[in-house]
């Protein structure tokens, strides 16, 4: 669309004369807020802290323009140019090969559009991004905000205090908590303190599974607070709530929205791989806000920043059940891929598996690639036919995980898809081909973290079968060892 | 600017590994648009097919085949109101799940650049039949504004052809809300802007998908009534 510029305000126009696509308007004027204007409260709820397209809103351009002219809505350009190079305001894309152009029927020009975030509705050089400039909706607080009555472990309590501090000081903090430390509970006090100060809170995570798992837990902990649960295709898309749980993708629709953002699993795919998601997280925070990062496995850069004092962090080095993390054992298994080609598995791996089957101990067996895993499946099924395999594109994934929980599957073969987020109470874990590049330090720590999760079965065997030790394997073992030592030193482990 | 830009697949965005071999070395360098994995997911319409509409006979029950034409075309051609208007339709691909996905990205999400994928094939067919005019099936003004571009015109432009705009749409596309009889009794969906241009011409109509063929037949009827000599259509898939 095109805008006419006049009297310190811009007006949408279909005529090409004297008008410009929004990206060509150097400074978009913002009319002053008219306190006497009766704004639409539904529009206020929809747009506060957001950046949306006209198509995202069920209101006419006429009503939206009126809000803009009275100072309640802002227009920003969807595409910005810097030295003739386009960048996308919503996803931060600046890469030339992620832009294309088309003869646009809306503005009548050759219009550049962003292909990176196309899934969320096309942003082109004539697309305005709408935001809210009026007061935020009021929300009323219940008498008690936090209804959770559980007890934090000593390690959790220390971290929880730091989280509260960070929320109040509007600063940044990394919570480095081992797998099974109970990190969700560590957030409760911080969230409560933010909500009590009428602040808007968001928990963001790269994975939809995690959003679905966290939502009921937070609703139960904060029963009087409305919670928006956002992922691709969720129903809460337009819900304004003091507490939002969202995938990092969904943050692209937010702009200067949150006083506190808690980013869960910052090291997980796709957050680390996609710059646009990191951009979205920064866009979604208010200029003055708190940012809390949560992970069991920070990357090397972050670890170094922690060691050298350049990053504020707190650790929870031990699990809530006060037992140490199982240490991975390394077992050389020769050229296992070559064996697989001959429809065989190395004897050392077969023995390990047979032991588990005989003792009726459930186990997870990780493979670096789907093809290799599917090669191993028929071989293992000759031992026990109930053995299953899962991977990311498996449509029965949820079903198989559930069957594993119900102990209907004795041994589950998997790719890295189950490296995090899933908990089976009493299992052993092995990696076949731990030398593969896909098994980074983080991946291996996460995989080892699947064992010994429950307080009734705090021990589990973790074995990395390899054809040559890698740096990542050694670093993973060192990281687990260091955490256990720290746990003992701080009196968080009982042995 | 990058000195050696690596080609990225337009559909899956993976880097394209150029295929090596004597052919690649000696033939004129072609711009790489798709990776071989995506390329293979398109299924060409091959083998025996309906002479009028390109419907492949391979998956069709014998009952719906009448010699060289399919049952649907036979019905159209037996109807005095419709017979003889559309001389033939050519479709390039089978309407499989992959095609559906690509088309959704192109048309509904508005990823205009995907038109390039089909440029070579469209150009080839154009060269083969050498029509006087290429006419894209038009969108209503509302729909055109909503999408930002007409997908059929985009296909032509990106194939290096000039879409002829002598056809416009007078009724909106949202016909699904109307009853069947209401739809049938709409005399025309389209309108001719410049009649003189059409007289005695060989016209190629272009649309993305051939479903029932009724849109194309409406257009063909109007064009013939306005003096066109021959009307064929090209659709990407059916």
Describe this structure in words.
The complex is a heterodimer of chains A (495) and B (238). In chain A, the strands form six sheets. Chain A has a seven-stranded parallel beta sheet. In chain A, strands 17-22-21-18-20-19 form a six-stranded parallel beta sheet, sandwiched between helices. A three-stranded antiparallel beta sheet of chain A has the order 2-1-3. In chain A, strand 14, helix 6 and strand 15 form a beta-alpha-beta unit. By secondary structure, chain A is an alpha/beta fold. Chain A is built from 13 helices and 22 strands. In chain A, helix 3 runs parallel beside helix 4. Chain A has helices spanning 41-47, 61-69, 154-169, 183-196, 208-221, 275-284, 300-307, 336-341, 347-358, 370-381, 397-405, 441-448, 471-489, and strands at 2-6, 9-13, 19-21, 73-77, 79-82, 85-88, 99-103, 110-114, 128-132, 172-177, 201-205, 227-230, 243-247, 258-264, 285-295, 313-316, 328-332, 362-366, 388-390, 411-414, 427-432, 462-466. Chain B is of the alpha/beta class and 238 residues long. Chain B folds into two domains: 1-41, no CATH class; 42-237, Rossmann fold (3-Layer(aba) Sandwich), CATH 3.40.50. Helix content of chain B is 32%, strand content 15%. Chain B has helices spanning 22-26, 36-41, 71-78, 97-108, 116-129, 141-147, 151-158, 180-184, 214-225, and strands spanning 65-66, 69-70, 88-93, 133-136, 167-169, 190-192, 202-209, 230-237. In chain B, the strands form three sheets. In chain B, strands 3-8-7-4 form a four-stranded parallel beta sheet. In chain B, strand 7, helix 9 (214-225) and strand 8 (230-237) form a beta-alpha-beta unit. The longest helix of chain B is centred in the middle third of the chain and has 14 residues, at 116-129. At the A-B interface, strand 7 of A face helix 6 of B.
């Amino acid at each position: 669309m095109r805008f006419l510029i006049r009297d310190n305000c811009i007006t949408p126009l279909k005529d090409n004369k004297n008008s410009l696509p929004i990206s060509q308007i150097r400074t978009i004027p913002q009319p002053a807020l008219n306190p006497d204007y009766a704004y639409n409260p539904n529009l206020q709820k929809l747009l506060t802290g957001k950046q949306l397209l006209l198509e995202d809103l069920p209101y006419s351009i006429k009503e939206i323009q009126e809000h803009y002219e009275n100072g309640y809505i802002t227009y920003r350009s969807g595409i910005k140019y810097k030295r003739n190079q386009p960048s996308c305001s919503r996803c931060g894309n600046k890469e030339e090969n992620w832009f294309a152009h088309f003869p646009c029927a809306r503005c009548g020009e050759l219009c550049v559009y962003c292909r990176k975030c196309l899934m969320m509705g096309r942003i082109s050089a004539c697309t305005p991004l709408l935001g809210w400039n009026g007061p935020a909706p009021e929300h009323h607080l219940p008498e008690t905000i936090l209804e959770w009555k559980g007890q934090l472990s000593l390690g959790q309590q220390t971290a929880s205090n730091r989280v509260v501090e960070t929320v109040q000081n509007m600063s940044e903090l990394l919570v480095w908590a081992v797998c099974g430390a109970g990190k969700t509970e560590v957030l409760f006090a911080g969230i409560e303190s933010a909500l009590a100060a009428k602040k808007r809170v968001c928990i963001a995570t790269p994975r939809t599974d995690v959003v679905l798992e966290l939502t009921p837990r937070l609703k139960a902990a904060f029963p009087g607070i409305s919670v928006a649960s956002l992922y691709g295709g969720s129903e809460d898309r337009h819900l304004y709530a003091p507490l939002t749980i969202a995938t990092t993708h969904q943050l692209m629709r937010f702009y200067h929205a949150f006083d506190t953002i808690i980013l869960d699993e910052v090291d997980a795919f796709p957050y680390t791989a996609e710059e646009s998601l990191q951009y979205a997280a920064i866009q979604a925070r208010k200029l003055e806000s708190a940012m809390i990062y949560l992970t069991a496995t920070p990357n090397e850069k972050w670890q170094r920043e922690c060691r050298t004092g350049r990053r504020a962090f707190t650790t929870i080095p031990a699990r809530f059940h006060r037992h140490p993390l199982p240490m991975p054992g390394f077992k050389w298994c020769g050229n296992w891929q070559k064996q697989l080609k001959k429809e065989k598995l190395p004897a050392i791996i077969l023995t390990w598996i047979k032991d588990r089957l005989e003792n009726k101990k459930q186990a997870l067996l990780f493979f670096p690639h789907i093809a290799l895993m599917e090669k191993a499946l028929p071989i293992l099924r000759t031992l026990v036919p109930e053995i299953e395999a899962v991977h990311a594109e498996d449509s029965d994934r949820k079903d198989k995980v559930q069957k594993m929980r119900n102990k209907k599957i004795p041994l589950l073969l998997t790719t890295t898809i189950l490296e995090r987020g899933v908990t089976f109470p009493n299992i052993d874990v092995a990696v076949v081909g731990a030398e593969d590049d896909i098994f980074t330090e983080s991946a291996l720590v996460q995989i080892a973290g699947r064992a010994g999760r429950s307080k009734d079965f705090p021990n589990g065997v973790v074995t990395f079968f390899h054809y040559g030790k890698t740096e990542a394997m050694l670093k993973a073992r060192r990281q687990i060892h260091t955490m256990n030592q720290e746990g003992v030193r701080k009196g968080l482990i009982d042995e | 600017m990058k000195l050696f830009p690596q080609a990225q697949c337009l559909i899956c965005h993976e880097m394209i590994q150029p295929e090596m071999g004597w052919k690649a070395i000696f033939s004129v360098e072609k711009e790489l648009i798709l990776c071989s994995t995506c390329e293979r997911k398109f299924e060409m319409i091959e083998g025996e097919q309906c002479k009028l509409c390109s419907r492949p006979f391979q998956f069709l029950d014998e009952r719906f085949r009448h010699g060289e034409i399919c049952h649907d075309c036979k019905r159209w051609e037996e109807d005095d109101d419709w017979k003889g208007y559309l001389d033939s339709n050519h479709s390039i691909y089978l309407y499989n799940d992959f095609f559906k996905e690509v088309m959704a990205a192109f048309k509904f999400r508005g990823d205009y650049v995907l038109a390039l994928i089909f440029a070579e094939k469209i150009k080839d067919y154009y060269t083969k039949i050498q029509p006087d005019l290429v006419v894209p099936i038009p969108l209503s003004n509302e729909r055109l504004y909503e999408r930002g571009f007409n997908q059929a015109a985009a296909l032509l432009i990106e194939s290096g052809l000039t879409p002829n705009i002598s056809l416009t749409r007078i009724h909106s596309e949202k016909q699904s809300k109307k009853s069947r009889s209401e739809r049938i009794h709409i005399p025309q969906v389209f309108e001719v802007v410049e009649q003189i241009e059409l007289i005695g011409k060989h016209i190629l109509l272009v649309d993305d998908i051939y479903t029932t063929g009724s849109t194309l037949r409406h257009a063909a009827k109007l064009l013939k009534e306005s003096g066109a000599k021959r009307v064929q259509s090209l659709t990407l898939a059916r």
